[in-house]
Every structure is written in structure tokens, then in C-alpha cells.
Design brief:
three-stranded antiparallel β-sheet; 1 helix; 101 residues; 2 domains
Amino acid sequence: MEAGAERIGSGCTAFVSYRSRRGDGEESKERVRMIWRWRYEDANGGEVTDRPLPREIFSSQSDAESWLGESWRELLEAGVEQVTLMEDERVEYSGMSLRAE
């Protein structure tokens, strides 16, 4: 599997891998983009979009989680109460509070 970074717009870069596939006797490459991001939410689970917040994207779940571990305090101060981890449009997990409970 080949891998590399690819610019996906707005100055963002995503991790891309290529898998070889056989179809109709011919070898082709399938592009697989792995984009992880956080959706910022209020206490009711509504997406917070009315203020400037970091719009980071990550090549892996662990990179996204590490970044959140370093950034959660600033997000909480900016009014984010909870987050949802997304892989493309798929929810990995949701409703994770940024407050110590």
C-alpha cells in the first residue's frame, strides 16, 4: 500500500493511501483518504459554528486524540462543552464532555 499526504483544499492536508485492486483482470489503484476531525458541540449536542475555532484535520484517530488532549482547555474556554470524533462523515464516538466530572 502506498501512502502520502495530499492537499485537500483550504490549506489542509490529509493522509491518503492507495490500495491495489484487481478488477476485470486489470490492476488499478483505489484512493483511500483518512480524514479525522473534531466536531465542537454545546451542552445540548448542537454544533458550535458561530465563533472562530480550530478546524484541524488529522491523519489518524490517535493524532486527533493527542491534539484534543493538548487543546481541550482552550476549547472549553471558547465555549465548547463537548466533542464528537469524526472519520470523514462517520461518527467514531460522540458527546465526550470537556469538563471534569
